[in-house]
Design a protein that fits this description.
Layout: E1 2-7, H1 9-14, H2 16-28, H3 41-57, E2 60-67, E3 70-79, E4 88-96, H4 105-119, E5 124-130, H5 134-141, E6 145-155, E7 161-170
Parallel strand pairs: 4-5
Antiparallel strand pairs: 1-2, 2-3, 3-4, 5-7, 6-7
Length: 173
């Protein structure tokens, strides 16, 4: 059985090799998370170091799903810091390792990120995903509402520009 924890920067630092493996698995399997294969080790390290810096600064929440000490999934909550936007946050980089998919980990990570949003007094969540991918279906199932589609938003591993769907969810306060 897996467990989900909100990590401190130092806890995340210890898991960097596992975070890199999780990111590599996602990129290699075609996930649209800002990277194109092959993922360079230096890019992955720089990415996770920036995330840890944001966690330490209090502008990001990093959740990790682990099964017997092995990282199987993650999601982030980017906390908006502008005074007129302190009620919202962005769900970012929901990743579940290929070998752990189909076990409800993604849905549980999303429920956990919503709970974290409540803890940080956020009532509006926003996110985006490639139109028609597994995330698109998951977010709809979890009650996220489509705000619109942007064509040619992100380049996939094959170099093709794909549309992204913007979603939002109003959380009860």
């Amino acid at each position: 059985m897996f467990r989900i924890d909100s990590l401190t920067g130092s806890q995340a630092e210890i898991l960097i090799p596992q975070f890199i493996e999780l990111l590599r698995d996602a990129v290699d399997s075609g996930a649209s998370i800002g990277f194109i294969p092959p993922l360079q080790e230096s890019d992955a390290i720089a990415f996770w170091r920036k995330i840890i810096s944001d966690v330490d600064a209090g502008t990001r929440v990093l959740l990790a799903a682990q099964n017997d000490g092995q990282l199987v999934g993650t999601v982030q909550l980017g906390l908006e810091t502008r005074l007129n936007s302190l009620h919202r946050a962005e769900v970012q980089k929901l990743i579940v390792h290929n070998h752990a998919r189909g076990q409800g980990i993604g849905a549980q990570l999303m429920k956990a990120v919503e709970a974290e949003a409540h803890k940080h007094n956020r009532s509006l969540l926003v996110l985006d995903t490639i139109q028609g991918d597994s995330g698109d279906r998951l977010y709809r199932r979890l009650g996220y509402i489509e705000a619109g589609v942007i064509p040619n938003y992100a380049r996939n591993g094959a170099g093709v520009l794909e549309p992204t769907v913007l979603f939002y969810k109003l959380l009860s306060t």
